[in-house]
Amino acid sequence: MDFGAINPTVLAASLMVASTPILLAAIGELVVEKSGVLNLGVEGMMITGAIVGFAIAVETGSPALGFLTAMAGGAALSLIFGVLTQVLMSNQVATGLALTLFGLGFSALIGQGYVGVKPPALAKPDLGLLADIPVLGRVLFSHDLIVYLSLALVVAVWAFLRFTRAGLILRAVGENHDAAHALGYKVVRIRLAAIAFGGACAGLGGAYLSLMRVPQWTEGMTAGAGWIALAIVVFASWRAGRVLLGAYLFGGVAVLQLNLQAAGVAVPVELLSASPYLVTIIVLVIISADRGRAALNAPASLGRVFHASS
């Protein structure tokens, strides 16, 4: 075993990159669930964003256009879910699962011609002297724009839900859609907007996976990231700060286990590969062990069908 090959600075920098796809998907799903909607199709939207963004970036030579198209693709797929569940009143759990299956099949079909293709690289911003700071420069100031966008998005969502009137209305719809409707708020429109935002974030996270983190297209490359994002939102008690913690915990363990494999640790590879999922779930369960506080944070109307006539 050669633990000297593990560089803590590189490990910390890699953590931020590895966490970004799940963080984007989870923060989008947080907004969706705060509106009272449970969308289990995060995995499908992520993998759709991954192949759509990859294909557009390769065909046009523009990774920025690939990211934008991935967001549009994720939002479009999520709106199918939104129309089915909010307008046609289909079951949210069954529809979300169907969305995931559709996304996995659609991406496998479209991605056949892109296996082994290298996408164009997204230029990193030049942060000047900040990037030259010992240790911190490598860890915090050497990343691409999407990493910083994901962090800004966490702060923006937290501030939106906590301090703005629109955020208050969104939370009111999630807590009691009948009361919100009685006050004149358009419950279905608000939920559709939240669903589209969540889909766009999931699509962006998927595109980051295929364009930046890997970067290549592989069938099923999300590998359960969407399900981890869903678990993070619930176990983080629907709090943006805890979502950030959960995503970075998963990314950190994922990077660490890869480094441990490279160092030749005498632990079965299968166990190391499963460790990010196990550790993330265990830690977040411990964090949310107080069921009373967790129940207070859970949107009261989560997963319930809204009837405009009620």
TrEMBL record:
Major place of residence: membrane
Entry keywords, A to Z: Cell membrane, Membrane, Transmembrane, Transmembrane helix
InterPro entries listed in its UniProt record: ABC_transp_permease
Annotated localization: Cell membrane
Bilayer disposition of the protein: Multi-pass membrane protein
Entry GO terms, CC: plasma membrane
Membrane-spanning segments: 6-25, 37-58, 64-84, 96-115, 135-161, 192-211, 217-236, 243-260, 266-287
Gene Ontology MF terms: transmembrane transporter activity
Name of the protein: Nucleoside ABC transporter membrane protein
Organism of derivation: Rhodovulum steppense
